[in-house]
Amino acid sequence: MEKRTNNRTSATTAVRGAFTMIELIVVLAVIALLAALLLPAVQQSRESARRIQCVNNLRQLGLALHAHGTQFGRLPALGYMGLDSSGSVAPYFGWTVVILPHLEQGNRYQKWNLSKPLSDPNNQTIALTTLPVFVCPSDTSTTGKGDLSYVANAGLGWTIAFNGANDCPIGFPLLNPLDLNGNGIRCPTSSGTDGFPSDQDLLAMTGVFFLESTGVPGVSRHHTLDTITDGLSNTVLLSENIRAGADPLNPLSSWATPDPLRTGFFLTSDICRGGSCSAANTSEAVANGLSGGINTGLARAEGEAPWPSSKHQGGVNVCLADGSVRFLSERVASIVYYAMVTSRGSDIRGALADDPGAQGDH
After folding, report:
1. What is the gyration radius of the CA atoms in the chain, in angstroms?
2. How far is Cα 243 from Cα 191, in angstroms, rounded to an integer?
3. pTM
4. How far is residue 280's CA from residue 343's CA, in Å, rounded to a whole number?
């Protein structure tokens, strides 16, 4: 009798210790709910860490540019162009190369041959090495070879040789000569015939970094930290752009390239309708618009979106000329964004001026 009772008790206990189908479904539902609640928090925490590292990278780059400016009495060029062995114009190196010694990358800088173009095998080997300080961890466009997530402030454009003029300003996406002073003259072949301020004078006032020549005579246009008269804390030095640097379709593209569309960011040339910056044709209200505004280039191809962009929600990190880093909303007012990009906009009189009081009816 006791034996049967014990068996019945053991059987009953075994049944009570098992999960029913309903209980199992409830447990799984609770686990799924907890996972759904925790996953966004984990992802947010990881993105926060990536964003902090991104800010630290920008701060290091800003300090390196300051150190370079102190050592050489000027900020570096946006990029350096020269002649190859055949006498053709060739890309040499960008602003990133010359600040390597100030990023604890002195060995790589010593190995870089400044007298050789970017295509030199030795230089290419160095350029295709990914350096963490040049890459924002949130940048999902990286390739693992020569990546770059940060670009320098190049203002309204750069200059090229055009129809006999060796210093002709052009902008993006127009890619045609700009008449920055709006007097109807573009790319004069004789200096001094464009009046004052000339197109080249205004180009220098609307940016911080410019293309220069290396190894051959050319135009030297550059800023020091003292010539940024809009104020170091009011002027953008560097910004994020995830559509820069390495490109699988272009083997010469890397963090070392002097290609202005891959190493700098620009104010859209749409500011000046038809490329003429006369008062009637100029509107700073499109500076942060649909073409050329912050994050408008996220879906465009590498090297075809020289505007600030990032994978951080709602804007980009920028390094100001005083070395501080801040987050700039993609919805920042165009006139504010324009003023933050220009280096001497408060000195301009006329359509391209920062100061509303200097713009008249514009």
Report:
1. 27
2. 36
3. 0.86
4. 23
CB count within 10 Å of CB 360 equals 11
The rounded distance, in Å, linking the Cα atoms of 107 and 41 is 41
Using CA atoms, how far residue 276 sits from 170, 308, 352, in Å, is 11, 24, 11
Pick from 255, 239, 242, 320: which is nearest to 94 by CA? 255
Residue type for position 270: D
51 close to 312: Cβ distance less than 8 angstroms: yes
Three-state SS at 269: helix
Residuewise pLDDT in 10s, the chain (362 residues)? 444 445 544 444 444 566 688 877 877 787 877 767 666 655 566 777 889 999 999 999 999 999 999 999 999 999 999 999 999 999 999 999 999 999 999 999 999 999 999 999 999 999 999 999 999 999 999 999 999 999 999 999 999 999 889 899 999 999 999 999 999 999 998 878 999 999 999 999 999 999 999 988 888 899 999 999 999 999 999 999 999 988 888 888 999 999 999 999 999 999 999 999 999 999 999 999 999 999 999 999 989 999 999 999 999 999 999 999 999 999 999 999 999 999 999 999 999 999 654 443 33
Distance (Å, whole) CA 312 – CA 102: 27
> What is the DSSP secondary structure assignment for residue 353, as one 8-state letter?
-
